[in-house]
Write a structure and sequence with these properties.
This protein is an alpha/beta fold. It folds into two domains: 2-164 and 346-359, 3-Layer(aba) Sandwich (Rossmann fold), CATH 3.40.50.2000; 168-342, Rossmann fold (3-Layer(aba) Sandwich), CATH 3.40.50. Helix content is 46%, strand content 14%. The protein is built from 15 helices and twelve strands. It has a six-stranded parallel β-sheet. A six-stranded parallel β-sheet has the order 9-8-7-10-11-12, with helices on both faces. Helix 8 links the parallel strand 7 and strand 8 (214-218).
Length: 361
């Protein structure tokens, strides 16, 4: 069996999708499967200019998924071949059985965040192709429910394959600049739906009682301007006069990220919408308490091992952050439960589930 994986999205993805694709390919290869990556030439006109010109991004994606991939597969296909499309778009007519990953239903639940051109591309190309895919993979039961409901796809066609997590608990990195700080931590892209301004407002309240505590925000701007919340975040930090307390760290190395996780008071991940919420499990693995949003995929993934709050209520978020500072017994309990839950999420388990789905087709 040969598994073709469309890894072209690695040219643009800065979010958890990038981690998903990289770890999926690695886990499949480590499982002894023949994996063939499909990706455009990085020097091609569409790839070089796709982030500069939105129209080229969409045209390039359509040409790649609907014409180039099918032609490539038609010329080399063998019995038993499969295609995995890991980011929303898959060929409408595929020469081989195909699995499509739809990570969440954010494109239909938060339509105001997206351009008319992108929504048109999804409506005309992505969703019809999704309905013709052999199987659809998604990353949580909550996402499965929403995809089935919003896209009118039978639930029996959708398989949940939980994500994995890097083994942060196996090796504690030593990065001195984070060791003597007392801080809350956010990890993720700076998208509007991540609700970072509410977390900052809540932090400004607890800062009055805890003057030495800081809030470190790890992550890069969203890949597209209409999704990005960086300007709002920076303006809020300035308006609250929190430049010394709320630190935008941007991109960090794996070693720095490990050190941040291990030294943080807690992870604050108050997103208004997630398909999964990978930082929650990363926090568990690193052995720190997690504060996350009640409801949806975040509560599902948290599995009763996080402190939950209303993501739209600054006072509730602030009170829960203060509780994590003042209650060491609560922190210990959350850490112990989180470490056990993290063991359920590995990239190997995810790849094994995907292989099982393929074998049952």
């Amino acid at each position: 069996m040969r598994i073709f994986v469309d890894t072209d999205c690695l040219y643009t993805a800065k979010t958890g999708v990038r981690t998903y694709v990289i770890e999926l390919v690695r886990a499949l290869k480590n499982g002894g499967h023949e994996v063939i990556e499909l990706r455009r030439n990085p020097n091609s006109f569409f790839v070089k200019n796709q982030l500069k010109y939105k129209l080229l991004l969409h045209i390039g994606r359509i040409l790649w998924t609907q014409f180039i991939i099918p032609l490539k597969l038609f010329n080399v296909r063998k019995k038993g071949d499969f295609l995995i499309s890991p980011e929303y778009f898959t060929p409408y007519v595929s020469p081989v059985p195909n699995l499509l990953t739809i990570h969440d239903a954010v494109f239909v639940t938060r339509q105001d965040d997206y351009s008319s051109l992108f929504k048109w591309t999804l409506k005309i190309i992505a969703w019809p192709s999704a309905r013709r895919a052999s199987k659809i993979l998604t990353v949580s039961e909550d996402a499965k429910e929403q995809i089935s409901d919003k896209l009118n796809i039978e639930k029996g066609k959708i398989e949940v394959t939980y994500l994995g997590v890097k083994p942060f608990g196996l090796k504690v990195s030593k990065v001195e600049k984070f060791e003597n700080e007392e801080f809350f931590l956010y990890v993720g892209v700076l998208e509007k739906r991540k609700n970072i301004p509410k977390s900052i407002e809540a932090f400004s309240e607890i800062k009055k009682k805890n003057p030495n505590v800081k809030f470190f925000i790890v992550g890069q701007p969203a890949p597209f301007p209409h999704l990005d919340d960086t300007t709002t975040i920076k303006s809020l930090i300035k308006d609250l006069n929190m430049q010394d307390s709320v630190v935008l760290l941007g991109y960090v190395t794996d070693e720095e990220l490990s050190a941040l996780y291990h030294n943080a008071l807690a992870l604050v991940f108050i997103s208004t919408y997630e398909g999964f919420g990978l930082p929650i499990i990363e926090g568990y693995s690193a052995g720190i308490p997690v504060l996350t949003s009640q409801g949806g995929a975040t509560e599902e993934v948290a599995g009763g091992c996080s402190l939950l709050c209303n993501p739209n209520d600054v006072r509730d978020i602030s009170e829960k952050m203060q509780k994590l500072i003042e209650d060491p017994e609560l922190r210990r309990s959350l850490v112990d439960k989180g470490k056990e839950r993290a063991k359920l999420f590995t990239w190997e388990k995810m790849s094994q589930k995907i292989i099982k789905v393929i074998q049952e087709l």
